[in-house]
Amino acid sequence: MRRYTRLYWEFAKSHMKVMMEYRIDFLIGVASVMLEQFASIFFVKVVFDHIEQINGWSFYEILFIYGIAATGRSIHQIFFDNLWTLGWQYIRPGKLDRLLIRPVNPLFHVVADRLHQDGFGQLIIGLIILGTAIPQLDLVWGAAEIAMLVVMIISSGLIFVAINLFFATFSFWMIDSLPIVWAVFNLSDFARYPLTIYHKGIRMFLTWIIPYGFTAFYPAAYFIDKSGYKEFALWTPVAAIVCCVLAYTFWNRGLKAFASTGS
Amino acid sequence: MKKYWQIAKGRMQENTAYSAWYWAGTVSAVMKLLIIYFFWQAVYANQTTIENINLETMITYIVIAMLLQGFVGGVGNELAENIKEGQVAIELMRPYDMIFKMFAVDIGEKIMYLIQGTLPMVLIAYFFMDLSFPKSPETILLFIVSALVGIWIGTFFDFLVGVLAFWTVNVWGVRVLKESLITFFSGALVPITLFPDWLRTITEFLPFQAMVYLPVSIYSGLISGTEAYMALGIQLFWLVSLYVLVRVIWSQAIKQITIFGG
User: Which of A212, A234, B118, B131 has its CA 20 to 30 A from that of B34?
Assistant: First the structure.
């Protein structure tokens, strides 16, 4: 564990140097992601200029859901973004074979190969959204609530990671599963709004099959009493852990299948 | 004429190979339709109209806007790549006008997209979401013309962003900026009539509303009669202006190349 921490630090240090070298690119990247997020929030704002609430949820409550998702996703985007590139950067050009002979966990190596600058823009905008929404929510915030919020956001991030890892693993069989990863990732758009607005089937799907519901709606519902999901929301960290275990197990299977074809 | 058609055809063949991406795109588009449908159902749960727009018209507007936005892009990306890799120098020596060549590629791509991407979506949307049809044949005709003009405005604009690669290093950042601007100001997400007044005023002076908002408003009946013809006039103004701009900037850019070439 300590060895990996030190190793990650070494990797990260060299990323930082590159980032500082291309400072303008770094700033453009951060700014563009922020603008993108801002556009979708603006959309919700325009709609709420004309109505009071959606399915009983006010503007700031929707913003809160959104903020949790954005902040959670930034964890995934900053540290695990390289999973997207597994197919075309590692498997197709044969770079993965080189990683496999190194004395490091291959998943760790792939993940540590990149620290994604745009993720910082996502993090900043996520925190801004949460900072805007929370004071308007009329909730009591003690140390316990803040700790719970942090746990929820980390869980949300881990679910994003696990889902991407799971579908990126298909690359071991089909060389590049990026289209699948991308399509599944788009499902997370559903989680922007209260799940209660959707048909029951969609709700079930986003809870039990591809659990994006736990990246935003359920964590937010924990803090908002009237939602009726307060207790169910407590399962969020458990869901995160289960997802990670499943995805990692599947990854290992894929790796085995891949190694056997390589010889 | 024939050579440009060959170029368009070549691109159509290339594209059929990307079937994994096709299915991923289709699935994503269906999901987007679902989100739109349920979101607006929930928005209208407590009212019958917003700014005089009822649910049926709103969903029609949003879905048609989403489908049309898929055509608003263009060749900017490819052009930027060509410039970055120096390919553009060879392209310029070939026996065709490079601007028309790029547009031919683009048309090929868009025809394929229309058949593979848009038509299935249109069927699904009409079948499950009760979209409304325009009332008169005149409106349908007007919409088709308006949509084509809007798409060309988008294509020209995209070309202009691509040409920037001659002067800037980070093309990608500029592109993301462009995408956000278009989504924002073209009315692709929500009819511009819902915008706050100050923003609507700004929007009226920008070319983006001519890409999506005006044609889709004609389709869904938000704009009708004389207003519709006026909208078409505004679109034609932008079309011509942007085309002139494309020509002027392109000739400037080509001068830049000869300087590099020494």
Answer: A234
For residue B47, count other CB atoms closer than 10 A to its CB.
12
Examine the pLDDT at B40 and tell me if it is beyond 70: yes
- Rounded to a whole number of angstroms, the distance from the CA of B203 to the nearest CA of chain A is 14
Phi, psi at B54, each rounded to 5°: -90, 170
Which single residue is written with the structure tokens 């991406």?
B21
Structure letter (DSSP) for residue B53? E
Please say if the pLDDT value at position B97 is more than 60.
yes
- Give, rounded to a whole angstrom, the gap between the first and last alpha carbons of chain A: 30
Q: Considering only residues A202 and A176, tell me which one the structure prediction assigns the higher pLDDT.
A: A202
Backbone torsion region of residue B147, taken as left when φ is above 0, otherwise alpha when ψ lies between -120 and 50, otherwise beta: alpha
Pick from A236, A176, A247: which is nearest to A212 by CA?
A236
- What is the rounded end-to-end Cα distance, in angstroms, of chain B? 34
3-state SS, residue A57: strand
pLDDT at B261: 53
- What is the percent of chain A where pLDDT is above 70? 97
The pLDDT score that the predictor gives to residue B96 is 85
**Ordered DSSP codes for B137-182:** HHHHHHHHHHHHHHHHHHHHHHHHHHHGGGT-S-HHHHHHHHHHHH
CA dist B23 and B9 (Å) reads: 22
What's the confidence (pLDDT) of residue B14?
62
Q: Which residues in chain B have their CB less than 8 angstroms from residue A40's CB?
A: 189
Rounded (5°) CA angle B176-B167-A22:
65
Strand stretches in A1-149, DSSP E: none
Distance CA A100, CA A91 (A): 11
Tell me chain A's radius of gyration from C-alpha atoms: 19
B179 and B154 Cβ atoms separated by less than 8 Å: no
Q: Chain B residues with CB-CB distance to A under 8 A?
A: 20-21, 23-25, 27-28, 31-32, 34-35, 38-39, 41-43, 45-47, 50-51, 169-170, 172-174, 176-177, 179-180, 183-184, 189-190, 194-196
CA–CA distance, A242 with A136 (Å, rounded to integer) = 33
In three-state form (DSSP H/G/I as H, E/B as E, the rest C), the secondary structure along B54-98 is: EHHHHHHHHHHHHHHHCCCCCCHHHHHHHHHCCHHHHHHHCCCCH
Alpha carbon distance A122, A137 (integer Å): 22
Q: What average pLDDT does this structure show over A77-84?
A: 90
What's the CA gap between B246 and B251, in Å, rounded?
9
Q: What is the pLDDT of residues B164-199, one digit of tens each?
A: 877 776 666 677 778 888 888 899 889 999 999 999
pTM here is 0.85
> What's the distance, CA A251 to chain centroid?
18
Give the per-residue pLDDT at B262: 45
Residue written as token pair 């291309």: A22
Residue A54 backbone dihedrals phi, psi, to 5 degrees: -115, 115
According to the model, what pLDDT value does residue B132 have? 83
